[in-house]
Amino acid sequence: MSKTPAAPASSTDVGEIASALDRVAYLTGRARQHERLMALAGVELDRAAAALLQRIAESEPLRSGELAARMSVEASHITRQVQQMEKAGYVTRVPDPDDRRAQRVQLTAAGQEAVDRIREASRRGMQMALADWTPEELHQLATLFHRMVDDFVARAEEDVALSPRA
């Protein structure tokens, strides 16, 4: 089954989508929203630590440098966050099977429980925000969001493949 090329996107529609996404990012990224989410989850983590903990949960154990690259931050930032989360019992360091001198970071049971609680609190907040939407509207939104993310990822990979080598 071949995909029919879509008509060129209206610059007005693309601008409206970008504006809406900016607003969603702003609203979900506010300190007060983070504090509310952490209170609902019963977890005490700052925004950076919560984001890192969730990233660790999404992958196999990784070296700190790999985590830094995936999050587009300096390695020293990850090292500090990992140390704090290790003291809190959320992560542990394990030997790297490819290089026993190196270590990888993995979740502990307490870390997985914290991630699960954060995700559940986030889902409850999303359900409250979308309570008036019909099941059909929710399905359509979910389908379109997944398609948009897939297209963003594909485009990012194309951009990397097309970029000139230094």
UniProtKB/TrEMBL annotation:
<dbReference type="InterPro" id="IPR039422">
    <property type="entry name" value="MarR/SlyA-like"/>
</dbReference>
<dbReference type="InterPro" id="IPR000835">
    <property type="entry name" value="HTH_MarR-typ"/>
</dbReference>
<feature type="domain" description="HTH marR-type">
    <location>
        <begin position="14"/>
        <end position="150"/>
    </location>
</feature>
<dbReference type="InterPro" id="IPR036390">
    <property type="entry name" value="WH_DNA-bd_sf"/>
</dbReference>
<dbReference type="GO" id="GO:0006950">
    <property type="term" value="P:response to stress"/>
</dbReference>
<protein>
    <submittedName>
        <fullName>MarR family transcriptional regulator</fullName>
    </submittedName>
</protein>
<dbReference type="InterPro" id="IPR036388">
    <property type="entry name" value="WH-like_DNA-bd_sf"/>
</dbReference>
<dbReference type="Pfam" id="PF01047">
    <property type="entry name" value="MarR"/>
</dbReference>
<dbReference type="GO" id="GO:0003700">
    <property type="term" value="F:DNA-binding transcription factor activity"/>
</dbReference>
